[in-house]
Design a protein that fits this description.
Layout (H helix, E strand, L loop, with lengths): L1 H5 L3 H5 L14 H8 L3 E5 L5 E6 L12 E5 L3 H4 L6 H16 L5
Antiparallel strand pairs: 1-2, 2-3
């Protein structure tokens, strides 16, 4: 989708970082499925590594029953691994919002 909509090659833009350990996000199986289908996204907050997870798929919630969660990624110093790339998360969020507005994510 990214390449079709932007004419940019995601592999060239991201290099080898796209599938690196720094982009691993631990979540439940249901949430992993929903994230991959753009049913929710992570919205960057003002503080470093702080996000709001927003469930936008109608009728769906996170495993705790909420539609909104606070998410904090630890720093490399605290965890030994870089936090997820914020640019990748912004791209994912943009796609999720567009797909939701078009009702394509359903």
């Amino acid at each position: 989708m990214f390449q079709l909509w932007t004419n940019l090659d995601l592999r060239k833009l991201c290099g080898s970082d796209l599938n690196s350990p720094m982009n691993v996000i631990s979540m439940s199986g249901d949430e992993h499925y929903s994230f991959g289908r753009f049913h929710f996204y992570l919205e960057e907050q003002m503080s470093a590594n702080q996000y709001k997870a927003r469930m936008i798929q109608r009728g769906m919630t996170f495993t705790n029953g909420q539609k909104l969660l606070d998410v904090t990624f630890r720093t490399k110093e605290a965890s030994g691994v870089e936090p997820p790339n914020s640019q990748f998360l912004r791209i994912h969020a943009a796609f999720a919002k567009v797909l939701n507005l078009c009702a394509v994510a359903e």
